[in-house]
Amino acid sequence: MFATTGRIQGNTVLADDFSLEKYNGRKVIITVLEEDKSFSTVSDDKLFALSDSLINQNMEAYQELAK
User: Quick check: 37 pLDDT over 70?
Assistant: First the structure.
């Protein structure tokens, strides 16, 4: 699993992370943060727990992506 930030321009997601090249062609899930809502950083433990929770809640969608 890999996470990075970027911005949307038209129908293209732009990221300043060149390590993404090794993931070329893979399917991704994009989360858009609302600009007018602030966000804060969280610990890795909280992030992984949240990620696991979201994955479990959306297992059917992830299985479709894997096809």
Answer: no
